[in-house]
Specification:
Rossmann fold; 6-stranded mixed beta sheet; 4-stranded antiparallel beta sheet; 36% helix; globular; binds adenosine-5'-triphosphate; ABC_transporter-like_ATP-bd; ABC_transporter-like_CS; translocase; ATP-binding; PstB-like
C-alpha cells in the first residue's frame, strides 16, 4: 500500500477560459503536513479546493487530470461528493462559526449525517473539542453562543466542527492569518498533534509557518507547481532558482 493518502496527477483547472492550474503533480503523504506556498494569485486556494471538489460549486469551472484518494479518482462520475467532503474536511481563513451554541456548532455535521442519539452526540462533541485543544476552555459553557469566543477559540471551534464528522484529510486555507501570534502558535501546535490522526494540507502566506509546521512543501507560481519536496530541502537548498528567489524574499 502506498503512503500517499491522495495523489494528484496531471491536474489542469479552468475558470471558464482562464487556466488557473497547469499539470499539477503532487503526492499528499498520509499523516504528514503538506504546505502550499507562493505569491498571491498563484493558485494555492484553487488547488486546495480541488481536493474536496469545493470548486464544483463555482459555475464555469472545469478539471482535467485526476486526484486519487485511496487510489480512486475523486472526479469519477460515480463519486458521491457529499461523502467525499465528509472524508476531506476544510477549515477557512476567517473563523466562520454558525450563530449557534458551541455544542450545536460541533454537533452540526454529525446531525446532518443523521445522528440523533444525544449521548453519542455529546461524546463526539467532547472528543472533537478535545481534538481541537479547546475542550478545557469551553467545557462549562457549551450552551453559550460560539460568537462569544475569541478569534483563536473560534478557529479551533471550526477545526472541532471539521473533526466531528471524522474526516481523513484536513484542508486548511490560511487558518491562522486572522489570528494574533499567541492564537497562531496554538493552531500550529494543534496541527502538529492532528497529523498523528489526519493527513493535512495547509495554504499559508507565512514561510516561517510553512517551515515550522510542514513535512513537505509545494511552491506554486502562476498556476505551476515549480517545486515540491521535503520542507527542509525547499527552505535550505531549493532546486529551482524561482523557489530560491521567493523564499529569500526577492519577489512575492
Ligand atoms: N471564482 C473565480 N473566478 C475566476 N477566477 C478566479 C476565481 N477564483 C480565483 N480566480 C483566479 O485564479 C487564480 C488563482 O487564484 P487563487 O485564489 O487560487 O490564488 P491564491 O494563490 O490562493 O491567492 P491568495 O494567496 O491571494 O489567496 C487568480 O488569477 C484568481 O484571480
Amino acid at each position: 500500500m502506498s503512503d500517499n493518502k491522495m495523489e494528484v496527477k496531471n491536474l489542469d483547472f479552468y475558470y471558464d477560459d482562464f487556466q488557473a492550474l497547469n499539470k499539477i503533480n503532487i503526492p499528499l503523504k498520509s499523516n504528514k503536513v503538506t504546505a502550499l506556498i507562493g505569491p498571491s494569485g498563484c493558485g494555492k486556494s484553487t488547488f486546495l479546493r480541488t481536493l474536496n471538489r469545493m470548486n464544483d460549486l463555482i459555475e464555469g469551472t472545469r478539471v482535467e487530470g485526476e486526484i486519487l484518494f485511496d487510489e480512486k479518482n475523486i472526479y469519477d462520475p460515480d463519486v458521491d461528493v457529499v461523502a467525499l467532503r465528509k472524508r476531506v474536511g476544510m477549515v477557512f481563513q476567517q473563523p466562520n462559526p454558525f450563530p449557534k451554541s458551541i455544542f450545536d456548532n460541533v454537533a452540526y455535521g454529525p446531525r446532518i449525517h443523521g445522528l440523533k442519539d444525544k449521548g453519542k452526540l455529546a461524546e463526539i462533541v467532547e472528543k472533537s473539542l478535545q481534538g481541537a485543544a479547546l475542550f478545557s476552555e469551553v467545557k462549562d459553557r457549551l450552551d453559550d453562543s460560539a460568537l462569544g469566543l475569541s478569534g483563536g477559540q473560534q478557529q479551533r471551534l471550526c477545526i472541532a466542527r471539521a473533526l466531528a464528522v471524522r474526516p481523513e484529510v484536513l484542508l486548511m486555507d490560511e487558518p491562522a492569518s486572522a489570528l494574533d501570534p499567541v492564537a497562531t502558535a496554538k493552531i500550529e501546535d494543534l496541527i502538529a498533534e492532528l497529523k498523528k490522526d489526519y493527513t493535512i494540507v495547509i495554504v499559508t502566506h507565512s514561510m516561517q509557518q510553512a517551515a515550522r509546521v510542514s513535512d513537505n512543501t509545494g511552491f506554486f507560481l502562476m498556476g505551476d507547481l515549480v517545486e515540491f519536496d521535503k520542507t527542509d530541502k525547499i527552505f535550505e537548498n531549493p532546486t529551482d532558482q524561482r523557489t530560491e528567489d521567493y523564499i529569500t524574499g526577492r519577489f512575492g
